[in-house]
Design goal:
Oligomer: single chain
Strand order of the largest sheet: 10-11-15-14
Largest sheet: 4 strands, mixed
Radius of gyration: 38 Å
Strand content: 25-35%
CATH topology of the largest domain: HSP40/DNAj peptide-binding domain
Distance between the termini: 79 Å
Shape: elongated
CATH class of the largest domain: Mainly Beta
CATH superfamily of the largest domain: Urease metallochaperone UreE, N-terminal domain
CATH architecture of the largest domain: Sandwich
Number of domains: 3
């Protein structure tokens, strides 16, 4: 297969400056690196192609020769003499500082890690998660809770400075030379990782506190007050700023994320901001009509039952559901009535019910009549 033009490989013009060529290679190398494309067998070839192109075009003498003779200028050339024998990983490491102690840039781009001055990691404390269970009433009306959790808090002995005398004096880390990163070789590729001694800060405490080992924080039990807003739904997260773990040696604290779980209710089911419940109704009241007492989250309420109410009829009570978050609006309460059929009748009650059934016949049973009219048409 014919080689592609090196300018085309990097996506630059023949008049591109050295800076433009460097930026183009950096972009291509990160995009096509084999470690970033483990499922793409062609990525390594594109990675090698980009390295070969950059090795030639980044060198003024080689570029001039290439511009005059093209790929023929390096046909049969050895390693370092042109493009054909180039080790793409060597070009890659040389470009991104992989052989030093404080480059770190390529790992940021490949794996999305940020870096501070000299490769040091952020001293901010970690974010924490706390799961809390609420009743439906608590979720609907809102409440205040006090959470108790164990977390890294500022060391009481050194005041969070990490040093025994409280001065906070630090020195450059001897393991990483103050870069916050260490490089280890894995075959032909070099891996840059956070320094295990300073945890990426690039510094160590001169006179570490004996209680916290120089970290400036120690495990402690903490109590945190949290307000639960009215109308919160199960699965919602509440962020409590600054209530996560303390930062290293006075670094900013992380945040606490509280995940809400609402317990199932014995009576109500919630759907968004509406509530649903089933309420039994005596047979006589369904037939004759009247008032029925039903439960709500605020207490009891009365609904009017029309005469002849059928089983499964749903009545809606406006604004008796769950409040909308940060709003005065509320959902509705939907009450479905379940007509109760007597299961134990004495002889006198049975006789009266039989007389009642004979007196009304089937014409006063609309559902019964409608069903059998349909059945007659079906069996014709």
């Amino acid at each position: 297969m014919a080689k592609r033009c090196y300018y085309e490989v990097l996506g630059v013009s023949r008049e591109a400056t050295a800076t433009e060529i460097k930026k183009a290679y950096r972009r291509a190398a990160v995009e096509h690196h084999p470690d970033k494309n483990p499922d793409d067998p062609e990525a390594e070839e594109r990675f090698k192609e980009a390295g070969e192109a950059y090795e030639v075009l980044s060198d003024d003498q080689k570029r001039s020769t290439y511009d005059r003779f093209g790929h023929d200028a390096f046909a049969g050339g050895g390693r370092g003499g042109g493009g054909a024998g180039v080790d793409p990983f060597e070009v890659f490491n040389r470009m991104f500082g992989g052989g030093g102690g404080g480059g770190g840039g390529i790992f940021d781009e490949l794996f999305g890690r940020g870096r501070g001055r000299g490769g040091g990691a952020d001293s901010r404390g970690a974010d924490l998660r706390y799961d809390i269970e609420l009743t439906l009433e608590e979720a609907a009306t809102g409440c205040d809770k006090e959470l108790e959790l164990d977390k890294a808090a500022p060391c009481k002995k050194c005041g969070g400075s990490g040093s025994a005398d409280g001065s906070g004096g630090v020195a450059s880390c001897s393991t990483c030379g103050g870069h916050g990163q260490v490089v280890t070789a894995r075959g032909f590729f070099q891996v840059q990782q956070t320094c295990p001694s300073c945890r990426g800060s690039g510094q160590t405490v001169k006179d570490p506190c004996t209680a916290c080992g120089g970290e400036g924080r120690a495990e402690a039990s903490s109590r945190i007050k949290l307000h639960i807003p009215a109308g919160i739904a199960s699965g919602s997260r509440i962020r409590s700023s600054g209530d996560g773990e303390a930062g290293i040696r006075g670094g900013p604290p992380g945040d606490l994320y509280v995940v809400v779980h609402v317990r199932e209710h014995e009576i109500f089911e919630r759907d968004d901001n509406d509530l649903f419940c089933e309420v039994p109704i005596p047979f006589a009241k369904a037939a004759l009509g009247g008032e029925l007492e039903v439960p709500t989250l605020e207490g009891r309420a009365q609904i009017k039952i029309p005469a002849g109410t059928q089983n499964g009829t749903v009545f809606r009570l406006r604004d008796r559901g769950v409040p909308f978050l940060n709003s005065s609006r509320k959902g509705d309460l939907h009450v479905q009535v379940q007509v109760e059929v007597p299961t134990k009748l004495n002889a006198d009650q049975r006789a009266k019910l039989a007389d009642f059934a004979d007196s009304i016949g089937e014409k006063n049973s609309p559902l019964h009549e409608s069903f059998f009219e349909k059945a007659k048409r079906f069996f014709k």
